[in-house]
Write a structure and sequence with these properties.
The protein has about 170 residues and is of the alpha+beta class. The chain has a single domain, classed as Protein Transport Mog1p, Chain A (3-Layer(aba) Sandwich), CATH 3.40.1000. It is about 20% helix and about 45% strand. Strands 3-4-5-9-8-7-6 form a seven-stranded antiparallel beta sheet, with helices on both faces. Strands 1-2-10 form a three-stranded antiparallel beta sheet. It is globular. Keywords: Signal. This is Lipoprotein. It comes from Gordonibacter pamelaeae 7-10-1-b.
Length: about 170
């Protein structure tokens, strides 16, 4: 009985670490310029322009700190490839140890090239204990505009949201 309880507890904890499994529903469709994407309706929304991006929205689960961000620019201020973007991400998170960068997939969404990377590294928590941080980034290019979708701590939400994307 103790083994079953320990196994069930470990499974529940691991599901929560990677997005709480099937308890997340992408039941709200939002638009960022010409893109629609489905997100959880119970996640808090904020919208702001940041850096080179003309429009962006982010969604956060206030209870766990997981978030999903969508960014858009109509200007190709940069012709950076997904690989160059990945390098910038790595350099901007240089304080972490044991950095890993993996190209997960390359697909086409409504005529736009979509390259997905996963980044992970270890940092020390405030208590001095090592904590693994895991991010996913989708770089979505068309000839005249560019989108990014970012996710932290919510791989299942990120993957499902990416599958829901429509570009017009």
């Amino acid at each position: 009985m103790k083994k079953i309880f320990a196994l069930a507890t470990a499974l529940a904890i691991s599901l929560c670490m990677f997005g709480c499994g099937s308890s997340i529903t992408l039941d709200r469709t939002v638009a960022v310029k010409d893109m629609t994407i489905n997100v959880p309706s119970n996640w808090e929304e904020s919208g702001y322009a940041t850096g080179d991006f003309a429009e962006s929205k982010s969604f956060m689960d206030a209870d766990t700190g997981r978030w999903l961000g969508v960014y858009y620019t109509s200007k190709f201020t940069s012709k950076e490839t997904p690989e160059e973007k990945a390098k910038k991400f790595r350099e901007s998170h240089a304080g972490g140890d044991d950095f890993h960068e993996n190209a997960i997939s390359e697909t086409v969404i409504d005529g736009a090239k979509c390259t997905v990377y996963e980044y992970s590294y270890t940092i020390n928590s405030r208590e001095g204990k090592p904590v693994e941080e895991v991010f996913r980034e989708a770089y979505i290019y068309r000839s005249y505009d560019y989108y990014e979708v970012s996710g932290y701590g919510c791989q299942d939400v990120f993957d499902a949201a990416l599958k829901s994307i429509k570009l017009s």
